[in-house]
Design brief:
- By secondary structure, the chain is an alpha/beta fold.
- It has 2 domains: 148 residues, 3-Layer(aba) Sandwich (Rossmann fold), CATH 3.40.50.10490; 124 residues, Glucose-6-phosphate isomerase like protein, domain 1 (Rossmann fold, 3-Layer(aba) Sandwich), CATH 3.40.50.
- The chain contains 13 helices and 9 strands.
- It has a 5-stranded parallel beta sheet with strand order 2-1-3-4-5, with helices on both faces. The chain has a 4-stranded parallel beta sheet with strand order 7-6-8-9, covered by helices on one side.
- α7 packs parallel to α12, α8 packs across α12 and α9 packs parallel to α12.
- It starts with a helix and ends with a helix.
Length: 342
Amino acid sequence: MLDDVVMIHERDAQDALGIAEKQWQQLLVDFSIQKMSQKPANIVFAGMGGSALGALLASTWPSFAVPFEIVRNYSIPKYVSSTTLFIASSYSGNTEETLSALEQAEKTGAQIVVIAGGGKLVEVAREKNYPAIVLPEVTQPRYGVLYSFKAFLNVLVAAQLLDELQMKTEVQKASDFLKSQTSLWAPTIETAKNQAKKLALDLVGKSIVIYGGPLTYPAAYKWKISFNENAKNIAWVNQFPEFNHNEFLGWTSHPLDKPYAVVDLRSSFEHLQIQKRFEVSAKLLSGKRPATHTVQAEGESMLEQLLWLVAMGDFVSLYLALLNGLNPTPVDLIEKFKKELI
């Protein structure tokens, strides 16, 4: 079925698979933002859904030399002050939680930066002369995650928290690597040779649970969002080592034939004890939960492995959408929900 290119084009009317295959190009966009006069003491990033994913990825690479927090609600932390770099991010520019958080941050005197595709956020930035990055238009925010990621990296450079030459060198290398890898998962590559198609076939009809380590968790969270929005398929996410302190036991009761599929996202850069935890957990839970589907990240650097996992998850979720008989792009119920809130 997944080798039927005609069917794929009919169901994937907005060519989400084509966007996924070319997402490496998003890393090459250079977003301009003025250098800040002093380094911030901390960073608070306000964003919901796909608009926060770029910042979440940055917690793995390049990570942060100052305290960092993502706010996914209407309110900001009490410690936000004039020494805080506050970033308000929304692809639509109209996300009500983010606009609320921005309004509160303005009262603290924080250094404010806007990352958005348009809407009210950009209007506020222009009216009040806040530094702003306007993102390229995309069909859905989740399809522009690497735009958001690169924009955030440019903000870190402007804030003197990331070396520009190092960033550009590593991102260019990662982009080249991603280009070579995404072509292996394209619709024209038959299932027998296509890792993404094969995994999607293994997951169809199941509720999906994704596990990552501290470094791969941002990618695991992206997988969850992609399964939810692309495939309209329920999925949950958790991470090691917290998993072993509670959820680990949750798998030990009830019949083995649980209606779940378990996916482990692995990286060779994880702490050795984290890698051991994956192995020991799989051994002790053998016969108590469905066997795990281990996805071992490829790449020579942590950034390459992180982006490889993100892209793989995009393809798997898009193929799962097709197997579910759905167009992956629309999120009609979310749009209806937003209208009901007004």
